[in-house]
């Protein structure tokens, strides 16, 4: 697999710089860097409890990653997971399907000098219950960016989110409309399973606040 012919995406996180090779010759969308992963990381950096000067910080609890387990779904090149790792999400598993794993592992190896450790990876098909169980849920933080683009994967995605996130945990979702059909189904079903908070656009990082992208915080609905 040749990555060197595709554009390299750099991302500054605090005092470190991550660099991601894309494989634009691949037939799979997961081997490209999509905007929402960048948006989510820079949002988290802006409001990170250790660096944010704003008081009160409305995201201090959500973005305090100390002693929390995290997992990224549909990670692709691993941008969000690696960025949040640099912001303190130490115990993180990065997942995607088998065809994307070479790109993910390539980028983990490329960024190992910055990360200073090998992050865990696992293959995960959202509809595979055995794979979900093998990850030993629940997780405090579930991360997903640019994952809503096929109508047929919406239900498995939401079921995986619900199975993986802890009762008091959060799903951090970077979102951009990719398919009207998937969009409609996702927002119809997600409201039945989660309480949803949309981050105000002005709270995104000013240099990473693309008009068509948003960040959401999902929490499991409390059982009555």
Describe this structure in words.
With 224 residues, the chain is α/β, with parallel strands linked by helices. It has helices spanning 35-46, 79-86, 101-110, 112-115, 129-134, 154-164, 180-193; strands at residues 8-13, 16-21, 69-73, 91-96, 120-123, 139-145, 165-176, 194-198, 213-220. It has one domain (8-220): Vaccinia Virus protein VP39 (Rossmann fold), CATH 3.40.50. The chain is built from 7 helices and 9 strands, in the order E-E-H-E-H-E-H-H-E-H-E-H-E-H-E-E. The chain has a 7-stranded mixed sheet with strand order 5-4-3-6-7-9-8. The protein has a two-stranded antiparallel ribbon with strand order 1-2. Helix 6 (154-164) links the parallel strand 6 (139-145) and strand 7 (165-176). The model has no long low-confidence stretch (mean pLDDT 91). It starts with 7 loop residues before the first strand and ends with a strand. The longest helix has 14 residues, at 180-193. Helices cover 29% and strands 26% of the residues.
